[in-house]
Structure formats: structure tokens, C-alpha cells
Amino acid sequence: xxxxxxxxxxxxxxxxxxxxxxxxxxxxxxxxxxxxxxxxxxxxxxxxxxxxxxxxxxxxxxxxx
Length: 65
Description:
Blueprint: H1 2-9, H2 18-27, H3 37-42
């Protein structure tokens, strides 16, 4: 769903591994991250972003055994 929303808005993406996102934010490679607030806090990404947009999307993580 997120991919379709970004494509419709004309937003391009830069695929990065999770450890590379903070480096990308620090160096200017990326300016935006798409993450739940808890993830941005846990991974310290919030220290490099200026704004938070409250988009009404649901994040759901599940494990199936």
C-alpha cells in the first residue's frame, strides 16, 4: 500500500539497509524516512529529521508459527 501511495505522489525511493538509513540521513543521501515513530526512536533516526507527518496508515507486525 505504501508503495502505491508513494508512486501516486511521484515520490522516488532510495533502497537502503536499516543500518545505512542513519548514515544516509547524516550525509544527505536521504531526507525522508518512512517508519513508525517507535522505529524512528529505537533506531535514532528521529535525531536527523525535522518533521513528523501523521499519515493515517496502520502498521502491523505479526509472526506466524
